Amino acid sequence: MHRRHLLQAGTALGLAGTVPTLWAAGMKPGPQAALIVVDVQNCFVDGGTLPVKGGAEVVPVINKIAAAFDTIVLTQDWHTAGHASFASTYAGKKPFDSTKLKYGQQVLWPDHCVQGTEDAALHKDLQLPTAQVIVRKGFHKDVDSYSAFEEADRKTPTGLSGYLKERGTKTVYVTGLATDFCVAWTALDARKRGFAVYVVEDATRAIDLNGSLAAAWKQMLAAGVKRIQSADIATA
């Protein structure tokens, strides 16, 4: 599912409403569950280069529910300078235009999350001392990468699936930024790889361009992704 496809789907379907939440009060993730924290970085919060409205609001929610998980994985967008997804790489292009790359249409973004910069750093208030792995994605100059599991060419794995399966993980809970892009891609790819998947809605924030949020939820729910709130998770 490409970002552009999400935007087009939202516009074409005219999806403006929301889908009812699945309530599962007091659910305990257990030792076969993993928490995936997607791209909670300076670039995606207020003051960053590609801010998601309210992005920093996910931080205390994620910190709270993290206590329920033995396995915690974080992801970081980790782009090269002059990355293929940057509008500045192409003469005459501006952010949110698109271009055709060898793996398909690519939405072009402002320069963001460049390797080693403060903009690419994890948010300073994340308190996840038991996190074991950081998956860096988008570091190949010619390929974007939204999902924690697979790059945008849809053939280059990150290795996360193997890591989780080696640890006996059966279920993943996905949080972070942004709901309608990297969170959705991660959730959908996790389902494709056989995991049960929950997206913790109040631990995410969306860009929501042209109905992209409603389109993303429609695709996730159709794929069997469950929609929950942080209050549904027992943390004690």
How many separate helices?
5
Percent strand: 15-25%
Find the count of extended strands (DSSP E, 2+ residues).
8
Structural class label: alpha/beta
Mean pLDDT value: 90
Placed side by side, the strands forming the largest sheet appear as: 5-2-1-6-7-8
Low-confidence runs: 1-24
Largest sheet: 6 strands, parallel
- Helix fraction, binned, reads 10-25%
Radius of gyration: 17 Å
**Termini separation (Å)?**
36 Å
Order of helices and strands: HEHEEEEHEHEHE
* Shape assignment: globular
Question: What can you see in these coordinates?
Answer:
The strands form two sheets. The protein has a six-stranded parallel beta sheet. The protein has a two-stranded antiparallel sheet with strand order 3-4. The protein is globular. Helix 1 (3-13) packs across helix 5 (212-222) and helix 4 runs parallel beside helix 5 (212-222). Strand 6 (171-177), helix 4 and strand 7 (196-205) form a beta-alpha-beta unit. It is of the alpha/beta class and 236 residues long. The chain has helices spanning 3-13, 58-65, 160-166, 179-192, 212-222, and strands spanning 33-38, 71-77, 98-101, 104-107, 133-137, 171-177, 196-205, 226-228. It has five helices and eight strands.
